[in-house]
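Fold Annotation — chain and its backbone
Encoding — discrete vocabulary of local shapes
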Amino acid sequence: MRKVLFSLWIVSSLFACKKEERRIISQINNASIDAYNTINSDSLIMNVGKFHNEALTYFYKSENRFKSSSSSTNINDIVEVLSGYFISLGVDKDTLDRICNSVKVKQINSSSLNDLTEEQIAINPANFVTQLENQNKYSAEFLWEIYDILDLVAQGADPSIIDEKVKLFKNKQFLTKDDLVAQYIFVNIFNSSSDYWNNFSTNSSQQSTKALIKTSSWVIINDGIGGIVGSIFGGVGSIVVSTVFSVWTNEQIKNPAPSTPQNPTKIVPPSQPDPRTIQH
């Protein structure tokens, strides 16, 4: 009798596992379809890395319009130069002003994020995960994956190690549409930004500009993060915010100002437990 009961328990357990497996597969499929439709219905999201690089090229070809070399660390000046490119993409001025005003709020010393409204963004890599978590869109697993990438950069990991981590991140199968769309945006911008900054110093036409770029993992990572946090405004927000983050971070690395948070050594982790370490 005990053997029969044990056999029935095994069968029921296997059935429950199979049922849970089918549920997860169905959830993955539904999320993947929703994410695919979201990405393909917005050409700005689908080509976010391409437009991001075009905006960077536009900026550095226009940098001589600044009144002084230090002006490029001012977000207002960055946006003013870039506005011509964004408007050429069909972004209306009201939308552009709304996005850019959100980024200007907490440019420096944004250790306290509780004062930020839903549409306000702080350029502070140490607290990027907290900002994403405050948007209440992303899973704990997604936030911890982003944290791991940021933490590698904060530790000064070799770029090849960071690249490998991003490749692993690209292949993660998240369970929600928001995670999957943000994953696409981050990887697309990261790869495009890597190409841009790594090729910048070898491109003679770009060398003729004032900008002498110091390639930094922080610039490239901040581009990708900017794309995610800016996505609260849709594809256009991803392009605008990622480009502003990119230029601002690079200019801060070239001309560091006191108390600027562009190169943190400690990243604030998600407040939620890491589900990847929970034993089932």
Summary: The radius of gyration is 21 Å. Residues 3-11, 13-21, 105-113, 204-215 have pLDDT under 50 and may be disordered. The first helix runs from residue 2 to 40. DSSP finds twelve helices and no strands in the chain.
